[in-house]
Amino acid sequence: xxxxxxxxxxxxxxxxxxxxxxxxxxxxxxxxxxxxxxxxxxxxxxxxxxxxxxxxxxxxxxxxxxxxxxxxxxxxxxxxxxxxxxxxxxxxxxxxxxxxxxxxxxxxxxxxxxxxxxxxxxxxxxxxxxxxxxxxxxxxx
Amino acid sequence: xxxxxxxxxxxxxxxxxxxxxxxxxxxxxxxxxxxxxxxxxxxxxxxxxxxxxxxxxxxxxxxxxxxxxxxxxxxxxxxxxxxxxxxxxxxxxxxxxxxxxxxxxxxxxxxxxxxxxxxxxxxxxxxxxxxxxxxxxxxxxxxxxxxxxxxxxxxxxxxxxxxxxxxxxxxxxxxxxxxxxxxxxxxxxxxxxxxxxxxxxxxxxxxxxxxxxxxxxxxxxxxxxxxxxxxxxxxxxxxxxxxxxxxxxxxxxxxxxxxxxxxxxxxxxxxxxxxxxxxxxxxxxxxxxxxxxxxxxxxxxxxxxxxxxxxxxxxxxxxxxxxxxxxxxxxxxxxxxxxxxxxxxxxxxxxxxxxxxxxxxxxxxxxxxxxxxxxxxxxxxxxxxxxx
Lengths: 141, 388
Known about the structure:
The complex is a heterodimer.
Chain A: H1 19-26, E1 31-35, E2 41-42, E3 57-61, E4 65-74, E5 86-93, E6 98-102, E7 116-124, E8 128-135
Chain B: E1 9-16, H1 27-42, E2 51-55, H2 62-69, E3 76-80, H3 89-100, E4 106-113, H4 138-142, H5 150-165, H6 169-184, H7 198-203, E5 206-209, E6 212-213, E7 222-231, H8 232-235, E8 242-249, H9 270-282, E9 292-295, H10 300-309, H11 318-323, H12 340-343, H13 350-361, E10 373-378, E11 381-386
Helix pairs in contact in B: 1-2
């Protein structure tokens, strides 16, 4: 949020090949492409299955659970649209795809490679939303 | 493997502008100045030039450059993708064109106002969903997350690399201290007469913690570099030619430049290893043949990863290779003797090629004792140069 209370995070940059991902995020869903012919998942999106060359794909919902594959705490340079430090991360999702995102609700000094995380969402400008990830709550008891 | 291009072409001319933080003139002018200087160095004129090659992100329009230089006719032109990762690929295009007989004299160039113009590291939000032919599709996935600069993209690879092999910021710092030592003795370097200690490096602020500090970043610079390539046969009649002994590209499935986040193991530069296999095994060179190397140090972690990709040391061993003093003038592999992109300046990698030529001509500010073979690497594009 900016000081005026408006959402500052920029909206995703849409194109013909990626818009389904962000359309789903707007509905608070984390999704990936799955080839309808060979069944392989793929991310980042692309218009053709790189293995079997099928153009047919379905968009499947992911559970939203994964681990931090890598991360970085970004200090400089800064853009007014974000709060610093920005917590950048690559998340390896349980289904086998990797996404770039932000970590939220975590102290930067507590971030580790391999940390279990689960999906959440944050609003963007133009009424959009992006998947972000927070530490997975430890099982009760 | 194919080694058809071995010793068939040569660099016969080299020119550059001054490197600065504010050139005060257009990239077209900078390119033209460097090219005229390179042709004069080669003993040629613009009427000899029939090929032009640069790489993506260079803002100079080829037609405007031809109009400015007064080149009568261009028979071959191309641009290598991948931005700075393509900076050595220009030599492959030039050598292939000359060897194929479709051009006689090819000029490769890069003009950039990386500081006074559009800074790569400016953390802008904007752009389009596409790549603008930068060799990276990063923007669309990174912008809404505030991952806005090359340092931020590459820090994710760097942290994974540190995690995989137990590498520390101090390990990066030891390479930077050596680059700054070389730069301190290079009047063209931004950090001329400004060496640093490891403590200085460790005291510089975080850009992307825990991998990249301010002193791990290349110096955004204004300037231009140009090289002239012709056939080895024609070159041998010229003054101080440098033969292109090997030249190769390797861009692999699922790899990107800068935002290379989606291969199975991002702590390893697989494209660099594939490129190195072509250069060494393909062309019949040994690692021990290399007397001096220039390796693309946009950010220090990438330098270590390339040392390993090139096979000068095993996975995770670059930190020890550096700590043992191998990058220095007395080491087994003196590296980036101009100060590198970190110490001299960032002409998007082509100033590294120029320094390799200087070493083989005997004109480097940090001249080594009689080097005969030099390697230049920009991740996925690279070459081996040698004296005739």
